[in-house]
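Students often ask why we bother predicting the structure of a whole assembly rather than each chain alone. The short answer is interfaces. A chain on its own may look different once its partners are present, and contacts between molecules only exist in the joint model. In this exercise we take two input lines together and write out one structure for the complete complex. Read the inputs first and try to guess which parts will touch.
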Amino acid sequence: AQTVTQSQPEMSVQEAETVTLSCTYDTSENNYYLFWYKQPPSRQMILVIRQEAYKQQNATENRFSVNFQKAAKSFSLKISDSQLGDTAMYFCASHHQGGKLIFGQGTELSVKP
Amino acid sequence: GAVVSQHPSWVICKSGTSVKIECRSLDFQATTMFWYRQFPKQSLMLMATSNEGSKATYEQGVEKDKFLINHASLTLSTLTVTSAHPEDSSFYICSAREVTSGANVLTFGAGSRLTVL
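Now the answer. The structure tokens for the assembled complex follow.
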């Protein structure tokens, strides 16, 4: 079975500092995608960053970057220069054949002024 | 970019009645849509995969006779919660993948909050 695990239910960070959210996954597929989604209080799911498993280079989107360790099945998200608007639930997800996403439990991130 | 509209955003119904939630892809065609359920402070749990022109594929433990899914066109999927009970109260989210998209990126609707009294 495909699983995604986020072991940090809650995290907090001071504004302008850096925080890393952890995620591990398990899959039997060779070609897959990994995602981080943000869910602010509005509940709208917003794509933060995407990683293709066959690419060794870690994905980066402005202040957001990932540390993808394929052998360890680890996919952490680093947020640099944290902003108050980054406060949200963050979900790690893996994409599988057929298109469905499997989500981790989520990490509630609070950015403090 | 791709937009998915979900309606209604909030609905209250009496126990025993049925409620329909619509999911529309506004500017793209989607052969496949997905329905998720989210309880407060919890993750999104996949309920079913909605396939245009064919029967939906339900995840293990999801009652297909209770959660009816219809995907009649390339831009519309509906979820009907039949004979709703208070335990069905939840946040329901749909997502869709553009037919021509090779990026495997899903676009999510804003969700529908169902409260069953």
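Check your guess against this: Chain B is about 0% helix and 50% strand.
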